[in-house]
Amino acid sequence: MEMNNSQLNHASRLFIYGNFGNDPGAAKRSVKVGSVALNVTAWTPKIIICNIVSQGPTSSGEVLVTAEGKTSSKLLNEWTVDFYYAKKESPNDALTRKIKFVFRFRGDAIGYGKGTDPLLLYTELYKVSKAVINMPEGSYSNGVTLDACGDYKVQWGAIIDHVTDRSFYAAGKGLGGRVFQTATGFGVEIKFSTPGILRSTRTFTPCTGSVTQQLVNEEIHFDGFHEETIWFPFATQAARTFIKAGSSPIQTGTGAAPGLFWDVQDLNILQFNTKTWWEDSAPKYD
User: Which residues pair with 128 in a beta bridge?
Assistant: First the structure.
């Protein structure tokens, strides 16, 4: 886990749940990932807490707990999920806000054991997670004959490989997330916003009069799902299971691109929708 709040602030820690007995002392016990020993910060009969690196070869793998000559093991597995967001803002799809989130999860897909609750309700999204925006240039125009008679056109400039790295959830900027793990999968509560990286040109050609044009640098947000928990389910309750592909319910009527306008009788609000989906994710250790 990674945590950042007023009570806990750890780059990365491993919580191991089980029946370990009383601490036999540093000389008689150890915790290793593979052959690398971890620093044990707490040992109780039901939980062991260790420092662990957040990325690299020893950030996941087989965890070996040894006490007074007896060894047991658990698999700390790892998954990388590609999660997609698309907010359609023109009837022809040319104006669609697109984000690809890359989420990294670590955990034990078997769960915490019967009658055991996690010590922490949630942790930070792991810092190697990120958001990548690739949006082609596009435009859409629409004619209006009643109120505000004229043609409305919005043109977007391309966004190529814009990366937003993970930040802490409490910061409220960039990509932040709270991660919840249960025996059935991972849940993520996402906050996301960018600076004004979308170059939007809004042109109005009236039925009579002069053409007006406005250039706006728009932010990109995770509209419609901001701070909602999205669940990524395990296929089975097994140490080497995969995360199943899925999607959130489609949200309809989520709005056209700012700068476009319709006569009321021509507007079909249901054509503007917001979707999220993700693909199967195999575990690192399968």
Answer: none
Question: Cα–Cα distance between 14 and 70 in angstroms, integer?
Answer: 20
For residue 285, count other CB atoms closer than 10 A to its CB.
13
State residue 265 phi and psi, 5-degree precision. -70, -15
Token readout for 50 is 């260790």
The tokens describing 36, both together, are 């690398």
pTM: 0.92
Residue 267 one-letter amino acid: L
From 75, 139, 153, select the one nearest 111 (Cα to Cα).
75
| Helical H segments across the chain, by residue range | none
Burial of residue 3 (CB within 10 Å: 0-12, 13-18, 19+) is: middle
Residue 199, both tokens: 């170059």
Per-residue pLDDT of the chain (286 residues; tens, 9 = 90+): 555 554 455 678 899 998 899 999 999 999 999 899 999 999 999 999 999 998 889 999 999 999 999 999 999 999 999 999 999 999 999 999 999 999 999 999 987 666 667 778 889 999 899 999 999 999 999 999 998 999 999 999 999 999 999 999 988 889 999 999 988 999 999 999 999 999 999 999 999 999 999 999 999 999 999 889 999 999 998 999 999 999 999 999 999 999 999 999 999 999 999 999 999 999 999 9
Residue the block writes with tokens 């803002």: 89
48 phi, psi to nearest 5 deg: -120, 135
Instruction: Give the residue from 75, 24, 23, 64 showing the smallest Cα distance to 47.
Output: 23
Q: Are 52 and 38 in contact (CB under 8 A)?
A: yes
